[in-house]
Amino acid sequence: MVQCVSINANGLRDVNKFIKFCSFCSENRYEVVAVQETFWSPDLIEDYKKHWNGIIISSCSGTDRQGVAFLVSEKYKNCVTEIKGFDGRFIYIQLEVDNKTIDLVNVYAPNIVNERDIFFQKVGDNIPKSDEIILLGDFNTSLSPLDRVGKHIEDKAFKRISKLLDDFNIYDVWRARFPNSRVFSWRRIIENKLVQSRIDFIFISKMLSTFVKNIFYKHTAFSDHSFVILNFDCSQTERGPGVWIFNNMLLNDEHYVNKINDLILKEKECRLFDEAPLIWIDNLKYKIKKETQVYAKDKKIYRKI
Fold first, then answer.
1. Which residues bind Mg(2+) (predicted)?
2. In CATH, what class is 2-232?
3. Fewer Cβ neighbours under 10 Å: the N or C end of the chain?
4. CA distances from 101 to 53, 94, 108 (A)
């Protein structure tokens, strides 16, 4: 299983911050780390490579601002190939894992709408037509009213990124699994008010959805952005203690059966039921598994009382 994360670090030029960042990623076993806003220059990267146990692949701007990078762990450093990068806003690598070639693209979108619109078009011109894409980073755009405190604006940059997702058959896997939830990946106090939005995403090809084990956001002291964490496993068979076996005896439990029926009816209200039934059924199986595990654990505890 590969643990892939994305984070806007709000600058990593300070060597002490970078050392702490590397230690944190290593301790949490983050194996592919996509970073935005590194503020690095090429000469700085050469010096910083000694602090990361693996390899660093990056794109810098000419002003020592912006900057994107992939930090790849020792485990996978010989499994990656750098393809291209530009403007300190785009870096594209390929990861060979379990006989698959995953196209990993890390982006940092501009704040200004017109520039962001042009950038998203450029992203579309530079990523492959592939069934195995993971596009991640800071997009500086919310995708729905649930993703923002305040007004969600569907400007031309929003329309451009939405079209890009459709054109490349990729989707927001977190939103698909949590269609009605709210979580914010960026927060800041502006004029004594807390402003929050979800603008950091991991988009994946729909063909990769069955390999996703989980995806979640994790707050950090390193930045006003959160980590987005994706765990995926492209192996054909599950190994070790991770295998889950459904207890058929639960089908004789009327309360459990009613809970699962209610869950299915609720999930049918999700737009993916009509728009992307294969993704919908994968998400449903995931939620049934989680609901079953919680129910079985609670039932076991109740019996002991």
1. 8, 37, 138, 140, 224-225
2. alpha beta
3. C
4. 23, 6, 23
Active site residue 138: yes
Question: Domain extents for the chain?
Answer: 2-232, 244-304
CA distances (Å), origin 41, targets 34, 58, 170: 17, 10, 32
Establish whether 152 is an annotated binding residue.
Answer: no
Give the span between the Cα atoms of 59 and 90, in whole angstroms: 7
Query: How many angstroms separate the CA atoms of 277 and 258, rounded?
Result: 23
pTM for the predicted model, two decimal places: 0.79
Q: Which of 108, 147, 171, 282 is catalytic?
A: 108
Reply yes or no on whether 108 is catalytic.
Answer: yes
- Point out the catalytic residue in the list 103, 117, 138, 172: 138
225 is in an annotated binding site: yes
Q: Is 140 annotated as a binding residue?
A: yes
